[in-house]
Amino acid sequence: MLRAKAFRGSLMYSELSVLFRRRRTWAMLFTVALIPICLAFAVLASGSTIPPGEGPPFLDRVSQNGLFVGFTAMIMAIPLFLPLTIGVVAGDTIAGEANTGTLRYLLIAPVNRARLLVVKFLGAAAFCLAATFTLMITGIIIGAILFPVGPVTLLSGDVVSIPQALLRIFLVAIYVTISLLGLSAIGLFISTLTVIPVGAMAATVVVSTVTQILGALPQIAVIHPYLISYYWLGFADILRNPMDLGSMLSNTLLQLAYIAIFGSLAYSRFTTKDVLS
Amino acid sequence: MVQSSDQQWAIKTVGLTKSFGSHNAVDSIDLQVPRGSIFGFLGPNGSGKTTTIRMLMGLANISSGDVSLLGYSVPEEIGKALPKVGALVEGPAFYPYLSGRDNLIRFDSADRYADPATRAARVDAALAKVGLTQAESKKVHAYSLGMKQRLGIANALLQPRDLLVLDEPTNGLDPQGTREVRNLIRTLAHEGITIFISSHLLVEIEQICTHLAVMSQGKIVAQGSVEELSKAEVLSLNLFTAQSDLALAGLKSVGITATADGEHITATVPGGQIEPERIVAVLVELGVGIKSFSLAAPTLEERFVLLTGEGFDVAR
Fold it and tell me: Are B247 and B263 in contact (CB under 8 A)?
């Protein structure tokens, strides 16, 4: 009880409440929610069944079972749209405060510089979670409204009940959230390098895009396993029976490594530079 | 090295220097701000004042020298000093998409020594002190400059403070606001709070400060209590007469070199060198018609310009 009260008065709570009260945050979450909605209506409008293999994965299963709307929408959103929203939030973490001039008043409050970095990163991580869950939950709802919902046929051929399917959907959302944490750490670091938030945001999105381009070049396959995007689309194993969480583990370790590296870079940069904004 | 004797000073620096490459923006300054004083920190644009304040607040790195803030060494122990310091540095800054009240709540949440239970009450009290209670729910992007300035002062007053560092506190305020701030400063000083004001409004400074320091080109060129600094070694002579040439000659004869601008003749006279009655007698003897004459201590503005130099160009 006391700890809950203490959290309510803390900087972390303030950061979350300021982030989730901004119009911009809600606009981004709303646009993320539109992805599964547009997808579902598009499938509905096309009428005829889609041959398997055409379009994004799972698209052929959407009209048979609305629970696949979320998966398909997630696959569509991962390459560009989700990194775009993460880039906006992560790029704004320190550069945004410097730009409004509020950074100096936070530091004078006083806020220890390392503590500010941690709070800002956790805020960005909370946004990652909000974005993926918004997408998934909207997908489930619109899928249930427009299409039949029933026991789900997994990739391995087994049929699982609806609660089991919802569990796997939940795990996929967690998986994608974890996938975005490394990019958030990179965005945090870039944000400490500039006082222009738009620059940091754009640079973060560029990092994400370039990473994926590199990941598509077979000539440099040797570096592929170390790119942040390597496991981004690797959640298919969750949709098998038995559920294989191997790629979830590898992804988590990779993202943690990026958080450690870019978190340290952000720390060393931010704790030593003059704050002239 | 910070010593226990530093407790008597709200701010003490020894050889504080900030260098950018080969250029010293702040060049080995020894600043001493007594506790309980109202300390005016003056200097032309580019003199290194703001850089000094940023170093005191832990925002900018110190190139060399020692700094103690309320007896704590900066930057090692600055986290212990800052909760007792309220500041307005280079203008107020707020989140434009939050209301005035929410902004103060945000900054208070950041202070880990601030008690969340009393937060609402303290924010209300701070807003009341600066007259913003009516406007507290408006978003800051709709605030005028004066309102933002008041909110900045409120931010500095969220907690009981031992030291207030105010950079241009009356900037953008209407005359009523300026008077209120001046009274507020006096009230706070009465409570024993040290007030460190950086301002260009020399008339203001002259009225309320007990101590002064003047910076020019990175160095402190004058520092001390207002009384000490007022003991003018140099007096300012102002004479209005139609017979300028005659007057200039007459002043020359008693060892005063003056300049004439139409009917207005000015000169600086070392204190104690000559009595005003003697000057008047000499001039009257020569037949100079005196419209107005004064021999008095220069105003702060005149002394400031004497110390820091004439000219519009900002220091390098």
Answer: no
Q: Give the pLDDT of residue A241.
A: 78
Best mutation target, B19, B53, B59, to test chain A (most A CBs within 10 A): B59
Beta bridge partners of residue B212, listed in sequence order:
B40, B224
**Residue B77 CB coordination number (10 Å):** 15
Indicate the SS3 state at residue B157: coil
Q: A14-64: per-residue pLDDT in tens?
A: 999 999 999 999 999 999 999 999 999 998 888 656 666 666 777 778 878
Residue contact B106–A23, C-beta within 8 A: no
Helices (H), B157-299: 175-190, 202-208, 226-230, 244-253, 276-286
In terms of phi and psi (left: phi > 0; alpha: psi -120 to 50; beta: otherwise), the region of B315 is beta
pLDDT of residue B5: 63
Residue with structure tokens 């895009």? A209
Q: Which of A13, A110, A276 sits opposite B79 (nearest CB)?
A: A110
∠ CA(A169), CA(A170), CA(A173), 5° rounding? 90
Q: Which residues of B touch A16 (CB under 8 A)?
A: none
A104 by DSSP, 3-state: which? helix
Q: What's the start-to-end Cα distance of chain B, in Å?
A: 31
Angle, CA A99 vertex, CA A93 and CA A101 arms, to 5°: 105
Measured CA to CA, the distance from residue B26 to residue B29 in angstroms comes to 7
B156 touches chain A (CB under 8 A): no
Asked whether residue B226 carries a pLDDT value surpassing 90, the answer given is no
Q: Please, what sign has the CA dihedral across residues B76, B80, B84, B88?
A: positive
DSSP A226-248: GSTTTTTT-GGGGGSSS---HHH
Out of A8, A9, A276, the one facing B60 most closely (by C-beta) is: A276
Q: Where are the alpha helices (DSSP H) in B41-137?
A: 49-56, 78-81, 100-110, 119-129
Q: What is the per-residue pLDDT for B316?
A: 47
- Nearest alpha carbon to residue A166 among A45, A43, A67: A67
Q: How distant is the Cα of A130 from the closest Cα of chain B, in angstroms?
A: 21
Determine the distance in angstroms separating the CA of B188 from the nearest CA of chain A, rounded to an integer.
20
Q: Name which residue leads in pLDDT, B112 or A175.
A: A175
Q: Is the dihedral of CA B192, B193, B199, B204 positive or negative?
A: negative
A226-233 CB contacts, 8 Å cutoff, 24+ apart? A226/A254, A228/A179, A228/A182, A228/A183, A228/A186, A228/A254, A228/A255, A228/A258, A230/A254, A231/A179, A232/A78, A232/A79, A232/A176, A232/A179, A233/A75, A233/A78
Whole-complex ipTM: 0.90
Q: How far is A2 from chain B (nearest CA, A)?
A: 12
- Give the residues of chain A that fall short of pLDDT 70: 1-2, 5, 47-55
**Would you list the DSSP string of B37-48?**
-EEEEE--TTSS
